[in-house]
Amino acid sequence: MCAARLSTVVLDARDAHELARFYTRLLGYEMRAEEPHWVLIGPPDGAAGTALAFETEPEYVPPVWPARNPGDQQMMLHLDVEVDDLEAETARAVAEGATLAGEQPQDDVRVLFDPSGHPFCLWVRAAQ
């Protein structure tokens, strides 16, 4: 048995508080801790899920997705968010401040950018 477990994913942003507010709305998370340059959010009490933290980095440069040219800022990670209704949740994410990516590589996935430019994917489980 492994004693280690993933508890939190941390994303840099020019404004940690703005990005935290976006993800609390998108995921139904709640604020857990706030400092001037750092915010922690997570699922409501008792709910399963990984916490997210955001750290203000004044020199943050959004990644380019898909990166095609030498020197493009590379994506370090992206979040996959499972949804029941892809079209409705895509529309809601955009209404909350996300931007739909111009390139969509799969029919059952929507690539979007959060307000800081991090790519994230909404996806639906394929019918079995």
From TrEMBL:
The superkingdom of the source organism is Bacteria
Where does the VOC domain start and stop, copy by copy? 5-128
Q: What SUPFAM superfamilies is this protein classified in?
A: Glyoxalase/Bleomycin resistance protein/Dihydroxybiphenyl dioxygenase (SSF54593)
Q: Which PROSITE patterns match?
A: VOC (PS51819)
| Protein name per Swiss-Prot or TrEMBL | Glyoxalase
Q: What is this organism's lineage? A: Bacteria, Bacillati, Actinomycetota, Actinomycetes, Kitasatosporales
